[in-house]
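Field guide to reading this record: the first block holds the primary sequence, the second block holds the structure written as discrete tokens, and the final block holds curator observations. Each block starts with its own label. This record concerns GMP synthase (Glutamine-hydrolysing), catalogued under organism Cupriavidus agavae.

BLOCK 1 — SEQUENCE
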Amino acid sequence: MTEPRRQPRTDVIQHVAFEHAGVIGDVARDRGHEIRLFQAGVDDLTLVQTDPADLLIVLGGPIGVYETEAYPWLESEIAVIRQRLDARLPIIGACLGAQLIAAASGARVYPGTREIGWAPIQPTEAGRRSPLALLANADWEVLHWHGDTFDLPDGAERLASTAATPNQAYAIGKHVLALQFHPEVKAGDIETWLIGHTVELAKAGVDPRTIRRRTAEIGATVASAGELMFSRWMEEAGL
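BLOCK 2 — STRUCTURE
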């Protein structure tokens, strides 16, 4: 008797509630994946190691990878990611997630130039040959929301840059996609970001009305492009 096929699963590590998997989660569900959610700093990540999912998504958040004294659980999260990288299992990182992957790969993460709001990225030739190329459907414009940056990990291929942040996206083989920006965000969710990051916006001198207005203009288009990109990446990763 043939055993029933196991349902594929995606694990999501989330750092703040409003920075959720967005269109990445939609793509995973559309491809038949069950979603298992872990809240960093609260939930035990042991299951992510002992019962690894087909895909791990590590999302964004307002803390720094290097703030391990203030947030000691970061060390165990980095260890979880390092184990997955060593096993060459598929992983997607967004913003803080990309920084955590870099740290788990042995690269330096440090304060950089703050970028908040909608702005284009510049793809590399490798980026134009990768699933990232589907962001051309949105003229390469994406949502930025970061103050830290990182060195490119050994063995990684740079996919995109901005003038302020050379390492905006990178890949490691077919199993790692790391993005400093946020193509996962749905236009309808932007208000939760504006509320959740109100202190940061005020400190940075960013008017939330500017982000809200631009989101109304292009947010849905960028989310659609992001959905196509993640779908292509999962297909190429065998997911």
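BLOCK 3 — OBSERVATIONS
The chain has a mean pLDDT of 96.
Strands lie at 9-14, 34-39, 55-58, 91-94, 109-120, 122-123, 141-150, 157-161, 169-172, 176-179.
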